[in-house]
Design goal:
217 residues; alpha+beta; 4 helices; 21% helix
């Protein structure tokens, strides 16, 4: 299991304590009080989204606008730094998703963007993914944490033989991690507790289509 420092060394833009503990606690309570609905995965062949529980199992919580705006403002303030870090022209954020992974939930390896001409504009506009952890890995019997559920990356090196190498991140409360939207990643099954994250994407101007609330992490 790798810490955020290791991913910083690999070229990711990360931020420990992006959200303080009290803010994370309040946001977790907000998510718990909302009714999380199963979230879908877009089928690149059909263009439709279905709740395919063989490839993804998680919930999307419809939180109040003020909760989303709190996180959104902080991410927008970082956008110039993220843009410089990845040397891309970022102009906005897609709507935030507050996700809940309960025991047994997961998301198989995937990437978040698409360069296909027939892909929706919001997918083609995604340049950098952002994940904010509202709780971290630990013992859920003694703390508001979870076990398992590691955000795991693949293909971080150019050699084809390295594509199968996995790089799991140890989740920390308040941690922000960003990565290019074409990087393959997964969420491994949660073994115990509940895993809470906020997910969004920095985008470029030109995405005419608004993203669905059931898009990918």
């Amino acid at each position: 299991m790798l810490t955020a420092d290791a991913f910083t060394a690999l070229g990711f833009f990360t931020g420990r304590s992006f959200l303080d503990s009290e803010t994370c606690r309040r946001l977790r309570q907000t998510v718990r009080s909302a009714r999380a609905n199963p979230i879908g995965v877009r089928d690149d062949e059909s263009g439709h989204e279905d709740v395919d529980r063989s490839s993804r199992r998680t919930g999307l919580a419809p939180v109040a606008p003020e909760a989303a705006e709190l996180v959104e403002r902080r991410l927008e303030a970082l956008m110039p730094d993220v843009s410089r870090h990845y040397d891309v022209s970022l102009t906005g954020l897609q709507p935030l998703q507050f996700l809940v992974y309960r025991e047994g939930d997961f998301f198989r390896p995937h990437s978040d963007g698409s360069d296909r001409d027939d892909a929706p504009a919001y997918l083609r506009g995604r340049r950098v993914a952002a994940v904010v952890f509202l709780n971290g890995e630990g013992d859920p019997a003694t703390s508001d944490s979870y076990r398992g559920g590691a955000l795991t990356f693949y293909g971080l090196f150019e050699q084809p033989e390295a594509d199968r190498l996995s790089f799991p991140l140890r989740g920390e409360e308040g941690l922000l991690i960003t990565f290019p939207a074409d990087v393959v990643h997964e969420v491994r099954p949660v073994e115990a507790g509940e895993r809470y994250t906020v997910v969004t994407w920095f985008e470029e101007t030109g995405a005419e289509e608004q993203p669905s609330p059931r898009t990918q992490e």
